[in-house]
Task: structure prediction
Amino acid sequence: MGKLDGKVAVITSATSGMALATAKLFVEEGAYVFITGRRKDKLDEAVKAIGRNVTGVQGDASNLDESGPAV
Result:
């Protein structure tokens, strides 16, 4: 049983570096992880690298049209 069993995480800009490593670690510990990234090809590569319990969401937080409704 992992430390994060049953938990859900959202990690932004997780197509490389520390964010991708964190997403992998969270999945290893039992979490389901949503990752975001601007480039579809890089996002798909990251999802494949993580392998399971992950969903990639393409978007650009610097683009207001893609960042969702203001609350």
The helical segments are 17-28, 40-50. The chain has a mean pLDDT of 91. The beta strands are 8-11, 32-37, 54-58.
